[in-house]
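Field reference: sequence -> structure
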Amino acid sequence: MNKLVTLVLLVLFISCKKEKQTKEVALNLKEYTIEQFMDNEAVSGGSFSPDKSKLLVSSNRSGIYNMYTVPSSGGDFTPITASDSSSVFGISYFPNDERMLYRADGNGDEIYHIYLRDIDGTITELTPDEGARASFYGWSHDGKSFTYGSNKRDKRYMDVYEMNVENMSSELIYQNDEGYSFNVISSDKNLLALSKTINTNDSDIFIYNRTDKSLTKVNENQSSNSAEDFSLDSKTLYYTTDDGAEFSYVMKYNIATGEREKVLEKSWDVSGIYFTHNEKYMVSFINEDAKNVIEIMDMASGKNLELPDFQNGSITSVGISRDETMMRMYVGGSNSPSNLFTYNLASKELHQLTDVLNKDIDANHLVTAKVIRYKSFDGVEIPAIYYLPHQASAEEKVPALVLVHGGPGGQSRQNFNSLTQYLVNHGYAVLAVNNRGSSGYGKTFFQMDDLNHGEKDLQDCVEGKNWLASQPQIDTSKIGIMGGSYGGYMTMAALTYTPEEFAVGVNIFGVTNWLRTLKSIPPWWESFKEALYKELGNPHTADSVRLRKISPLFHTDKVTKPLIVLQGAKDPRVLQVESDEIVAGVRKNGIPVEYVLFEDEGHGFVKKENQIEAYSSILKFLDTYLKKENAPIDGEIPAKEIEVENAS
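Structure field:
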């Protein structure tokens, strides 16, 4: 038997085996409740204690996020905080003792404060200024201080402070009067890398010298630039740029001579790099077709480390101990929530610290997404991530949803999403589109929706619906649209400006009045405001005419399809009034509208109780108005309206 015949037979064998496995899963498929899906645990962070015996993490196992420690070789989680209101997110152990830093806001208002938990359990608020937000920037190389940002002096801008860890005294080290953003500080603490936003793609980077107060521009041309790290000797700055290219690559800049040299380039965006504490390794993050790829280079040999092979999962993030011997990493995929591992870089010893998938859920019943591409109305190729239910077939067609990410400028990723898997498990296909204007596919694609939101990007979503309709497993009459934030806007734009294209809409805290949203930007977004105006339009100029035209709130009379709206009352980005008014406007048409309002959430629902309420409401709505054979269409609309409120 020749090699070609053998290869063909092998391919046929594998194909038949996969088809048999798929059929078996479909026959034995179990539909899980939202409570079962939300009983998956979400774990994040992972700061090593000074002796590396344990990690500080955040988990929502109590229903909201709190801090825990877990042995680095595996074992039980020990609760450190027990908040039952605001979520608590661990930042880090102190470098040389077991004190801890964490952050918390006011139920989603994004006014974060930094807190110290002392070794004896005492809690001290380190940034108590009322109404001011604080952001942790990082530890000094000597471990004796950390830098953080605060807008307590001027609500528009984040000044840079250094806090001494011996007495927790704070010193202003950079007064930000021009709207710069902090990127990184050098090991000797004399140089600060700052960025200045030009538009939503481009920014300049500068080096501020604390000794002589000089400010030196690093990049030569207008492009997307981000300072990533200084060399250990503080002589070189490493930064990412897309100058002269579609995708970002890594450059190094000699501070004394001004010379530049390309360090790393891929066929996708290199989204960031950093060096470990003593520069033994360089860690790189590559956004490869909506999937995070991580490389760790040994600086001495110039070769990448061979990392563990997780077969169906991929390493999504890593953190390396200060002594550069231990690594923590998260491993997951579209069909698996991320688990936390530790890895000894010398001995290759690997420990799994979490198993976050609910034991009631058979992992085989979850769906692995695949990347597809389709042509839009003008020939532009649109990437998307497709989830097809196991029970779908040409004989058993299923309803479907076009899912639109947040942003503008976000990206649907090949990551696990509980809501998506929940809907797919219950028989809905999901196509997560990366319409023009999405990040990760080159700067030309990213800028394609500038000043035409609700137009060409909306047509990309309509063409996504058409792609779904061409699939033999999809019921062409039952395709809806869903999204959060900018995706919520796209949902309302679809129902308003293309009212016959989608059967239903799911609007999760979506913008509906661009004039108001752009005028009510949180004060700490001041440095980014002009960039948003350049992309979307300035509401204080003649652009207001177009902004009104593309705002669904002013055109609710065109909506003819059922709608559900979900909103957090504490949302500082998309105000509650946005959802209040769109609901009232659409209801005037006699259209069924369900409204789910959470008094204790912001821009995104983080509490399990609220997630359960939100996601179960979405499924119930879809089952009523999209899936059922008697779903109301073309005027056959029941009079019943439902409003759900969940107060804290």
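Note: Confidence is low (pLDDT under 50) at residues 633-648.
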